[in-house]
Amino acid sequence: MCSISKMSAASAPMYAQLLEKAGLLPAGQSVDPAATATKPVSKPTTTPESPTRPTSKWLGLPRILLDFETYVSKDYNLGASGMSYERYIMDGNFHAHCVGVLHPDGHCEVRSDVAAALSELQRSYGRNLDNVLTVMHNSAFDAAVLAWHHGIVP
Fold first, then answer.
1. What is the dihedral of CA 144, 145, 146, 148, to 10 degrees?
2. 31 three-class SS
3. Where are the alpha helices (DSSP H) in the chain?
């Protein structure tokens, strides 16, 4: 099951589109950001090669997938002139709206309480997520967010 917790109205359509492309949200289903309860979404059938498999053959570590969704505006975005990852992430406007996590057991969640979600991952997998293989949507960006804002260096 993939659950979507409360998130900003701006993030909901974008995250629904990403989840639909990943096969985790049925086509045409929307995400209600005002909902206080989580919404179950059927998980796709897994195969031995599927990324939702509980363990990875590579290094034999369990695998988690992470993806941050962050604040953007007309002038504050990664496409703005001269905007590097470092400048964007370290800017005072930076805010992570949510983090998507696909756990080794196939459980998927989107959490708007980013710090709490990361603390739970640290309790499960070690201070720097040492006991899990961490896969990220855009690893240069997502790893920088983990390191520079949360002190986690996987």
1. 70
2. coil
3. 11-21, 85-90, 114-125, 139-150
Cα separation, 78 vs 87, in Å, equals: 9
Angle between helices 114-125 and 139-150 (to 10 degrees): 90
119 Cβ neighbours under 8 A, 6+ residues apart: none
What is the per-residue pLDDT across 15-48, written as a single tens digit (0 to 9) for each? 666 666 655 556 666 655 544 334 444 444 445 5
Token pair for residue 70?
């962050």
Length of the chain: 154
* 33, 41, 48, 55, 61 from 98: Cα distances, Å: 12, 18, 29, 25, 25
